[in-house]
Write a structure and sequence with these properties.
The protein is mainly beta. It is 3% helix and 62% strand. It contains 1 helix and 16 strands. The chain has an 8-stranded antiparallel beta barrel. The longest helix is centred in the N-terminal third of the chain and has 12 residues. The relative contact order is 0.17.
C-alpha cells in the first residue's frame, strides 16, 4: 500500500495561521495577500482503470497556498470579482488499487457575495502520481504511474470569528485525466486570506548566501518498504519573490528498494504571508544514485513545498515536504523535513 501522510502539510498551514503577526490583521484581507487553507473529505473514482471499492475511504485532503492577483497575463475580471493563483497538493484517498495524489497550479475567480459568503471557481493542470498494480505477462506489477490532467474546483467560504480573513471552506474537486480514472470529491476545512505583507526590514533577504540543513523521514510510495531517516544540506540565494537553491539529499534506506543520495537544483517562488512568515514552492532536477539498484544514477524531479519563519535577520526555521518523482514508474518518494537556514 502506498504510504501517505498529510502531517507536514498540515503543520505548514498551522504554522502560517498560528504564527501570523498581528500586524497582518489590520490590513484588508483581500489586498494582494497570501492565501492558505487545508481541507479533508471523501469522494469516489470512476471510469478508466477504476475497479473494486471506488470510494476514497475518507482519506481525501488538499493543501492550498496562493496569492491574490489584480490580473493574470493581462486578464482582468469584471468589478466585484478578484482572482487568485494557487499551488495545490491534492490527495485522492485510497480506493482499491489506486492511491493517487499530486500537485496542481490553479487559476481561480473569486466573488464575494456578502461580508460572510465568498465563492470561487478554479481550473489548472494537475501532475499526478498513482501507485497501482497492472497485469503483466509475469503477473501483477506495482507501478508509480505519472500522468498530467486537469483539476477543476469550486469552493464556498463562510467567514468565522478570528483573525481577519479566516473562514470555513467547503470545496468540490473534479479530476479529469485521459485513459485512466476520473474522480469527484467534497472537502471541508479552514483557511485564511491574509492582507498584503512584505518582509520586515530587519529580515529582508539581500542576495547573500544562506546555508542550512533539514532532518526528517522518507517514505517510498511502494509496498514492501519501510520509512527511513533522511537529511538534506542546502545552499540558497533569494531575489525578492524568487530564489535559487542547491541541495544534497540523503534519502535513507527503505530496506528493500531505495537507498538514494544525490544533488538537486531548484527554482523557488516565495510568497510572504506575514512580515516574518512566508510560504514557498520549488521545482528542479535531482541527479541521484540508488545503492539498492547497483548505484544506478538517474535524473529525477524534485518538487518542494515549504514554510519559512524568520527567527532573526540571519536565521530561518523551515518545515518542508519534498516529492521525488522518478518518471520510471517506480521508487517515488516523499520526504518530510524540519531544520534551519543561516545567512552568511
Amino acid at each position: 500500500m502506498k504510504a501517505k501522510t498529510c502531517m507536514a502539510a498540515v503543520l505548514m498551514v498551522h504554522a502560517a495561521v498560528a504564527q501570523a503577526d498581528t500586524t497582518a490583521d489590520t490590513i484588508a484581507p483581500d489586498d494582494h495577500g497570501a492565501y492558505l487553507s487545508v481541507a479533508f473529505g471523501n469522494g469516489r473514482i470512476y471510469g478508466g482503470n477504476a475497479s473494486g471499492y471506488r470510494w476514497m475511504r475518507g482519506r481525501t485532503f488538499e493543501v492550498r497556498a496562493g496569492r491574490q492577483q489584480d490580473e493574470v497575463f493581462g486578464l482582468a475580471l469584471p468589478s466585484g470579482w478578484t482572482m487568485r493563483v494557487d499551488f495545490v497538493h491534492y490527495n485522492e484517498g485510497h480506493p482499491d488499487n489506486n492511491h493517487r495524489d499530486g500537485f496542481a497550479l490553479q487559476w481561480l475567480a473569486v466573488h464575494r457575495f456578502s461580508p460572510m459568503w465568498t465563492g470561487e471557481l478554479g481550473a489548472g493542470p494537475y501532475l499526478s502520481m498513482n501507485t497501482t498494480e497492472i497485469a503483466t505477462p509475469t503477473g501483477n506489477t506495482q507501478i508509480d504511474d505519472a500522468r498530467l490532467g486537469v483539476l477543476l474546483s469550486a469552493g464556498l467560504r463562510l467567514a468565522v470569528p478570528g483573525p481577519s480573513g479566516t473562514h470555513v471552506r467547503l470545496g468540490y474537486n473534479h479530476v479529469a485525466m485521459h485513459t485512466v480514472h476520473r474522480s469527484d470529491a467534497l472537502v471541508l476545512g479552514i483557511g485564511r486570506q491574509f492582507g498584503a505583507a512584505e518582509p520586515a526590514p530587519d529580515v529582508v533577504p539581500d542576495g547573500r548566501l544562506w546555508l542550512g540543513g533539514t532532518f526528517g523521514t522518507s517514505i517510498t510510495n511502494m509496498a514492501g518498504t519501510h520509512g527511513a531517516h533522511a537529511g538534506v544540506l542546502e545552499a540558497r540565494q533569494y531575489a525578492e519573490r524568487w530564489g535559487i537553491g542547491y541541495k544534497f539529499l540523503f534519502e535513507g534506506d527503505d530496506g528493500a528498494r531505495v537507498d538514494r543520495r544525490g544533488l538537486a537544483g531548484q527554482l523557488w517562488y516565495v510568497q510572504p504571508v506575514t512580515p516574518r512568515l512566508s510560504m514557498s514552492a520549488g521545482l528542479g532536477p535531482y541527479v541521484a544514485a540508488n545503492r539498492r539498484d547497483g548505484n544506478r544514477t538517474a535524473t529525477n524531479l524534485l518538487i518542494s513545498f515549504q514554510a519559512e519563519r524568520a527567527l532573526s535577520a540571519r536565521t530561518r526555521a523551515i518545515v518542508n515536504f519534498n516529492r521525488i518523482k522518478t518518471f520510471r514508474k517506480t521508487n517515488d518518494r516523499d520526504l518530510f523535513q524540519i531544520g534551519l537556514l543561516r545567512r552568511f
